[in-house]
Amino acid sequence: MARKNKLEMEIVNLNAAGIDVGSRSHYVAVGQDLDQVKEFGVYAEDLTKLAQWLLSYGITTVAMESTGDYWQNLYVELQKNGMDVVLCNGKFTKHAKGKKTDVKDCRWIQQLHSLGLLSGSFLPDQTTEILRTYCRQRANWIDLASSATHKMAKYLKFLNFRLDVVVKDICGLTGMKIIQDICNGNLDPYSLAEHRHFNCKKPKNEIAKALHGNNREDYLFGLKQEFDSYNYFQRKIKDCDKQIEKLIKREISKNPEKKKLKTSEKPYKRINKNAVNIKNFNQVAFKYFEGVDLMAIEGVSHATVMAIMSEVGIDGFKKFNSAKQFCSWLRLAPNNKISGGKILSNKIPKGSNRLKINLRQAANAIGNLKETHLSDFFKRIAYRKGRQAAVSATARKLATIIWTMIVKKLQYNPPTQYLFLDQKRKLGIAKKIKKQIAKFDLKPDDIGFNNQLINNNLF
Q1: What would the pLDDT profile of 139-154 be if each residue is shown by its tens digit?
Q2: Neighbours of 416 (CB within 10 A)
Q3: Helix 281-288 vs helix 217-253: angle between axes, to the nearest 10 degrees?
Q4: CA distances (Å), 206 to each of 148, 156, 192, 214, in order?
Q5: Of 28, 123, 323, 428, whose Cβ has the fewest other Cβ atoms within 10 Å?
Q6: What residues contact 9, with CB distance under 8 A and at least 6 apart?
Q7: Which residues contact 138 (CB under 8 A, 6 or more apart)?
Q8: What whole-number distance in Å separates Cα of residue 187 and Cα of residue 167?
Q9: Which residues, 6+ apart, have CB-to-CB distance to 333 below 8 Å?
Q10: Is the backbone of residue 449 left (phi > 0), alpha (psi -120 to 50) or beta?
């Protein structure tokens, strides 16, 4: 008779529970018996009863799926009662076999968690979570404002006001003044052209030619409605900016040492019109990250730094043991599938988040730079594998640099320093002067420089 071998696994979490999160009810298992499974509602009173029921069984750790947004209130309630909550991805808790039911799911989650087979998802600290809420709400208003802009452009075309031809941005200084005047009832093209800003490339007479419209009332009504909506969205964006600035400065004020920190000015970093309107954001970000100057990295913009603040935060970086783990969480690292000693696939996993999108945008901007450490890296990858692969590789390199700078408190020190436009001009002028000095064999006394300048090694 054949002998049967029984494989046993060590229980890692003794007092563990599993919860199958739902939209209308939560199924909770504190063991594998049916009498150890109970259903609870989703109201505040039900969540309190759920937590008390778990405490009555001596539960210290709970695992549950991150199902939609239904887990958040339950997560807060369990943490408030002193339980360690593991929020895991649903793909790691798929039922092994048999019919799928809520009771089986919660028992399977409890079993996996007891054996220590579930890993928790990344969750930021409370301050970062609040900042993330403000930033994501702001992004929603920006999307709505963008939609209103497209609709304004559509109504302007219907009215035969070809403002999009004579101005670069219809929501710029010239465009907004003209649209506002049109909505106020002024349809005279020559009067409207007087709103031309001095930076506008097109002359007034050409702007006036583009503003001879058909003046249909229904299109004018639609334009006015979209213009009012656009202004409303802009006010909401400013309200979000005030809340973001207030929260960041409050966090900085908690540590007096942060207030004393100061970094070099970076006037060459272009500020996008959709960037958060915080005065002297360069200094604020330097203080927030405790003396780490992320803006010194070429290609990193105000939006990139704001995404790092709101999506991960300072304490969030410490939850990743290495830069490789951080890149893997961002899904910027290849997912190697090896079988029989051969690599079957090494594609980057599907999925994205806001920080990954911002890093890829920064990487794309780096690809347009010249003579920098990161742009050289970008071009080497692009030459071999194409621009798309170069964007992903540079974004991963950026993530590694950012993790190293924040966790290890290091400053950005590339082998090839990035020079801004006026720095390049200054070096170019100095190079020309040196050539002229060598050509005519000029001495410091011939030019009139004193000994102090000579001692400062200006020549």
Answers
A1: 999 999 999 999 999 9
A2: 12
A3: 40
A4: 26, 16, 12, 18
A5: 428
A6: 115
A7: 237, 240, 241, 244, 276
A8: 18
A9: 324, 327, 348, 396
A10: beta
* Residue reference for tokens 């966090």: 251
Side chain identity at residue 418, one-letter code: Y
Tokens of 41: 């509602």
Measured over all CA atoms, what is the biggest interatomic distance in the chain, rounded to whole angstroms?
109
Tokens describing residue 180? 């506002």
41-84 pLDDT tens trace: 999 999 999 999 999 999 999 999 888 889 999 999 999 999 99
Q: How many Cα atoms occupy the beta-carbon half-sphere of 74 within 13 Å? A: 33
3-state DSSP call for residue 443? coil
The predicted pLDDT at position 418 comes to 61
Q: How far apart are CA 16 and CA 85, in angstroms?
A: 10
The reported pLDDT for the residue numbered 224 is 95
The answer to whether 233 and 144 are in contact (CB under 8 A) is yes
Residues of the chain scoring pLDDT < 50: 1, 453-455, 457-459
DSSP-derived pairing of the beta strands 16-20 and 37-40:
unpaired
Three-state secondary structure call for residue 40: strand
State residue 457's pLDDT score.
47
Which residues, other chains included, contact 346 with Cβ-Cβ below 8 Å and sequence gap of 6+?
334, 335, 336, 337
Q: For residues 299 and 292, what is the distance between their CA atoms, to the nearest angstrom?
A: 16
| Rounded Cα distance, 160 and 212, in Å | 7
pLDDT for the residue 449 = 57
| pLDDT, tens digit (0-9, with 9 covering 90-100), for 128-186 | 999 999 999 999 999 999 999 999 999 999 999 999 899 988 998 999 999 999 999 99
pLDDT at residue 453, as a whole number: 46
Three-class SS of residue 306? helix
Token pair 């300072």: residue: 314
Q: Which of 409, 326, 414 is nearest to 378 (CA)?
A: 414
List helix spans (H) across 373-416. 373-385, 387-408
Q: Which residues of 101-135 are buried (b: 16+ CB within 10 A; e: fewer)?
A: eeebbbbbbbbbbbeeebeeeeebeebbeebbebb
Neighbours of 280 (CB within 10 A): 9
> Nearest 5 degrees, angle CA 297-CA 405-CA 352?
75
Residue 7 pLDDT: 62
- Per the CB < 8 A criterion, the answer to whether 309 and 128 are in contact is yes
